[in-house]
Design brief:
Helix content: 55-70%
Strand order of the largest sheet: 4-3-2-5
Radius of gyration: 24 Å
Structural class: alpha+beta
Order of helices and strands: EHHHHHHHEEEEHEEHHHHH
Strand content: 5-15%
Largest sheet: 4 strands, antiparallel
Shape: elongated
Number of strands: 7
Number of helices: 13
Oligomer: single chain
């Protein structure tokens, strides 16, 4: 007999895997904005560099020629910032509704689950720094860093006697390597890190608010880490550890909550699992929850047993494994030829928010609680 908390933990793992695919889709869209600007920048850079005499090269002259390029770069990062704000506002509202539904689905119908105001939570998330930065400021910083790398690459190119074509290839990269060997690739990695961390931060703030609003239903929250070879030294020892729902004090250990699951470092993939009180602790007298008319789930308040992403994924159907990993990696996992690190990677098709919403709805329907 499974405890409801064990089933809830499995649901959180499923949702977290889908969130990583959703993040991948958002990353791709934000990088596409940069790539479109990059093509225009490369074209204007080729024209600008032709006006510089290598024997008379001066940074002052270069600065004056980079004016239009600076405007293109600035506009690209401003567009990414606007798109991310719009994306996060919609995602925040959805994540709150998901967290609410997760509690409703795994609790008896007689138990009231409190809602949270989405606008207030979004405002709080945007005002809270993640990894020492505010989202509204980070894009300007990334733009500044990108222009600094561009100027330095051009200056070094002239000093080393490189041609205009060689300098542009160093900036943009080569087609043979899918343009991943230029300095622009560093900007792409920076955008990916910010996007993934920002989504995790918003999700974490939404989860915190939902747990706090329903603290009377919870006995704890449990840290759930993605245990693979890329899991950080911060998250690995915290996996499975319990904390109080509101102030996040350690329960039975001394590891601090820090910024929280999903927010303790760049690209953090951890999440938090609500640990529900038993029927007796909730003060209600209702029978156990029946799932699909066959399996029974005990509402006994037990903490879910340790379950990693790999444990969860191995129990899924071949179709779902292929959806998460891609058909080749899915087959390799079933054949026992897939490395632990690859098993955790969301290699399947990226998800839009609408697709994430649909998958979560299907999961709740299948749970049948």
């Amino acid at each position: 007999m499974e405890s409801v908390n064990a089933l809830l933990a499995l649901e959180v793992i499923r949702h977290q895997i889908e969130l990583q695919r959703y993040e991948a889709g958002v990353v791709a869209r934000m990088i596409a904005v940069l790539d479109r600007a990059d093509k225009r920048i490369a074209a204007e850079l080729a024209v600008a560099l032709q006006e510089i005499d290598p024997s008379l090269f001066k940074m002052e002259r270069l600065e004056s020629l980079l004016t239009s390029i600076r405007e293109l770069s600035k506009a690209a990062y401003e567009q990414i910032g606007k798109d991310m704000r719009d994306e996060l506002k919609e995602f925040n509202a959805y994540e709150l509704s998901y967290q609410h539904q997760a509690l409703v689905t795994h609790l008896p119908a007689v138990v009231h689950v409190a809602s949270v105001n989405a606008n207030q939570v979004y405002t709080a998330a945007m005002a809270r720094p993640f990894q020492g930065v505010l989202l509204k400021e980070v894009w300007k910083d990334l733009d500044t860093q990108a222009m600094k790398r561009l100027r330095q690459t051009i200056a070094n190119g002239f000093v080393e006697g490189k041609t205009t074509d060689q300098i542009i290839r160093e900036v943009r990269g080569t087609r043979a390597n899918n343009f991943k060997d230029g300095i622009v690739e560093k900007s792409r990695r920076d955008i990916e890190a910010v996007v993934r961390t920002a989504i995790a931060n918003v999700a974490g703030v939404a989860q915190d608010n939902m747990m706090e609003a329903n603290a009377d239903l919870l006995k704890a929250v449990q840290w759930s880490s993605t245990l693979d070879t890329r899991t950080s030294q911060i998250c690995r020892p915290r996996d499975g550890k319990l904390y109080t729902p509101v102030d996040h004090k350690p329960i039975g250990h001394k590891l601090p909550w820090l910024a929280g699951a999903g927010r303790s470092h760049w690209r953090c993939r951890s999440s938090q699992v609500p640990v529900l009180k038993s029927h007796k602790e909730l003060g209600i007298d209702v029978p156990e929850i029946v799932i699909e008319g066959k399996t029974r789930a005990s509402m006994d308040g037990q903490v879910a047993a340790e379950t990693t992403y790999a444990d969860w994924l191995k129990k899924q159907s071949a179709a779902r494994q292929d959806e998460v990993l891609g058909p080749t990696r899915g087959r390799l996992m079933r054949e026992g030829k897939l490395s632990l690190d690859d098993m955790y990677s969301a290699r399947g098709k990226p998800l839009t928010l609408d697709e994430l919403r649909k998958k979560d709805a299907e999961a709740f329907k299948l749970a049948g609680l």
